Amino acid sequence: MDGDAPQEPTIDFVPALCFVPRGVTKERPEKVALSRNELEKIIKDAKEQLGGGDGDGDNDDNDTDDENNANNMDVDDVRNTNENNDPNDEFNFDNYEQEEQGNLASIATIVNADQQIADEDNDSEAEDEIIKSTDNLILVGHVQDDAASMEVWVFNQDEESLYTHHDFLLPSFPLCIEWMNHDPGSSSAGNLCAIGCMDPVITVWDLDIQDSLEPAFKLGSKGSRKKNKPRIGHMDAVLDLSWNREYEHIIASGSVDKTLILWDLDEGEPHTTITAFKNKVQSVEFHGTEAQTLLTGCADGLVRIFDCRDPEIINTSFIKWKINGEVEKVLWHPTETHNFIIGTNDGSLHYADKRRPDSFLWSLKAHEEEISGVCFNAQKPNLLTTSSTDGVLKVWNFSTSKIDEVHSHDFEMGRLQCMKQCPEDPYTLALGGEKPPRCRIYNIKNFETVRRVFDIPDAI
Questions:
Q1: 396: number of Cβ within 10 Å
Q2: For 297-334, what is each residue's pLDDT tens digit?
Q3: Quick one: which of 51, 117, 240, 398 is 20 to 30 A from 377 by CA?
């Protein structure tokens, strides 16, 4: 009967995604199994949370305020607007299967690897459970109406394969995802991701554990008036994250609350809070070789660079650049390490040198709407790729004095919300949008004009 048919979601888009490098994920991620007592505790906690409490039956005023703020946001607020395709070189997930899960969070025990292997079904799906050293994971934040999840996809470029491995529910809409291999409390490298959401608390998930019902740990807490517990961390949505690859226990987060926090992952607490902003902090990135140097973009129209070594003067001692409108994206050049790119809400690009404050090497009106993604190419230092909510991907040839458009392409995915680059192949990009397939993996070497301008040999 038509009345029983599931309704199509009215909101369905990908606001955030992230590549995980090859060779860091366990071949067989550990699975969780629940005892009867654990399952009963989950159901009890879930009922209390759905009733407006904080997990122990208390109705926390702070939690209610945050939920109201999130419910009042529309699709544009979530992300701060928040050549034909070659089917042999393009991957998407038009027809993925999405498992229904309950919105639960509690403790779980891990099934050991030997038991997991012994229990594995001997069928064609068993091969997909194995993650190869040549596989990338792609972490895809997915929003459908009032439900949010992170889908873990496996991408193998050599085999031209892309499939969903598993997914899990998120507490609120994801806005940014950052991979990191620092595992607090362990001497071994980890495989974790931090997720910033509409909720002010950052959740950190272990990617080597499958079917997790709760994050490995959280950064921040909403506090509780009844329990006299102070709020820790941000007061509003977290818009961007940057992990420090030199000081691996540090991650930076920018928020709607006009602050930037440097978190100590080992302590699970804020190390430094920067309050020099007059509006939302929308983009943050640590320098690739100068670990103390932090690049930021703010909705107040200022790009700021901070030296994070002295917390006492960090809020007053910084260099800055002023642009018209809001700063949406900032990104350091991977080889020209003094230089960085700025993307704005009106579709403009500005290229700058950190040694020349408040001046630009060049500026350009690049897109009709806001810049949603920027990617340099370490193999071709003069190649730049941009995405925009106007729905268009563009490839540029640039120098310190000029920039020229090489190619533009509309993937017909609606507003492109995000773009990320494969760490092993800078030509391979992941794009998130609002229309099917909503996420697409594409190699820009597929564009003939890109191969010609950048002298890239044709594939054999």
A1: 21
A2: 999 999 999 999 999 999 999 999 999 999 999 999 99
A3: 240
pLDDT digits (tens, 9 = 90+) for 256-269: 999 999 999 999 99
CA distance 23 to 20: 9
**Assigned token pair, 448:** 């003939």
List the beta bridge partners of residue 167.
151
| Residue 369: CB atoms within 10 Å | 16
What is residue 126's predicted lDDT score, i.e. its pLDDT? 65
Q: What is the pLDDT of residue 48?
A: 60
What ranges in 86-185 are assigned the alpha helix state H? 113-119, 126-129
The Cα–Cα gap between 79 and 175 comes to 6
pTM over 0.90: no
Q: Which of 410, 409, 429 is nearest to 421 (CA)?
A: 429
- Encode pLDDT of 388-419 as tens digits: 999 999 999 999 999 999 999 999 999 999 99
Q: What are phi and psi of 222, to 5 degrees?
A: -80, -15
> CA 93, CA 80: separation in Å to the nearest integer?
25
Count of helix runs (H) and strand runs (E) in the chain: 6, 31
For residue 193, the cross-strand partners are 179, 205
Counting every residue written for the chain, the total comes to 460
Q: What is the DSSP letter of 374?
A: E
**Other CB atoms within 10 A of residue 231 CB:** 16
- How far apart are the C-alpha atoms of 305 and 1, rounded to whole Å? 60
